[in-house]
Write a structure and sequence with these properties.
2 domains; six-stranded parallel beta sheet; alpha/beta; Rossmann fold; 352 residues; seven-stranded mixed beta sheet; binds zinc ion; 18 strands
Amino acid sequence: MKSYDVAECGCPLKLFERPTPQPAGTEVLLRVLAAGVCHSDLHFWEGSYDLGGGKKLKLTDRGMKLPLTMGHENVGEVVAMGPEAKGVKIGDRRLAYPWIGCGQCMVCRRGEENLCLKASFLGVHRPGGYADHLLVPHPRYLYEIGDLAPEVAAPLACSGITTYGALKKLGSVPQEQPIVIIGAGGLGLMCLSLLKKMGGKGAIVVDIDAVKREAAKKAGALAVVDGRAADAVKQIQGHCPDGVWGAVDLVGSGDTVKLGTDCLTKGGKLVVVGLFGGEITLPTAYIPMRAMNIQGSYVGTPAEMKELLDLVRRARPPALPITKRPLPEAYQCLQELKEGKLVGRAVLVPAG
Ligand SMILES: [Zn+2]
Ligand SMILES: [Zn+2]
C-alpha cells in the first residue's frame, strides 16, 4: 500500500510503500475513498501546539510517533476483515470514527472514547487515511453513510462532529436563544449549518476577516461582527437582547476566548473548540460572580457520530464547499491550507 507520511515534522510528506495490512481478529481493512485534510493536520505535521508565552506543546511528547500517516476524516470501502469482525461486509462504504480510545477505562466504558487517556486516534496515534488503505481495529468504529458521497461524509468525522459536540454542550440554549459563533472559517460555516438543522434560533458570527463575515452572512448568520472592533462585545450583546447564554469559540486564541467570556451574560457558557493557541488573564472573581462556564470540547463521542450522521442524512449535508484532490497532492493541500489558499474543504481521493 502507498501512504504519504510525516517523516519529519514541518518537512514535505514522504511517499511510503509498505505491504498492505492483513486484518486479524476484529480488524477491518478499508480502501480509502475520501480523506479530509483538516486544519489540525497542520498541527500534527508541525508537531506542536502553541501554549502562549513562547511555550509549545510537543506532540511527540504526547504519544505521536513518526513516520505518521495523517488523515482522520475517512470514508472507505470494506475490502477485507478479520474472522471476528461482524456487522460489515465486503463492498460496504463506511465512515471511520477516528477518536478511538482503549475501550477498557471508565471514560471509554461510559462512551467517551474521544477523551480516553490512552488514545489511539486514526491519523494521530495509528495510521490514518492519507493512504490507499486504512486499517480500523473494530467494526464498531464504522458508520453507515447512506447515499452521502464519500467526500461529503468524510469531514463529518472531525469538523462535523467537533461542531456538533460543541453545540450539544450548550444544552437547550441554541433552541431558545441566538448563540455566538466565533470564527467563520470551515468550522464556523459547518456550525451554522448544523445549528439550523438542530432547530436552533441562529447565530451572531464573529470573525476578523471581512470576506469570512460575508460568507457567514450568506450562510444565514443573524448578524456578523468584526472581532477586532473596539466595541465588539457591545455589538454582540446588542444583537442578543436576552443576553449571550451560549457561545462557541472555534478559533481558541487568547483574544477570542477573552471576547467569548466578556460577552457572556451571568450564567452563560462558552465552549472552546479551536486550538489556535495563546493564553488569557481572567479576574478569578468573575468566575463565581458571573456564574461563568467555560468548557472545552474535543471532537465528539461515538454516540454523537451516529446522531450527526442520522441528522445529516435526514436533513441534507451541510453546505460546505468540498474540493476533491488526488491523494498524491496531500502535501500540496497541506501547504495551501497553511497559506490560507485552500477554497473549501480539501478531500483526498484515490489517484486516477
Ligand atoms: Zn479508554
Ligand atoms: Zn480534524
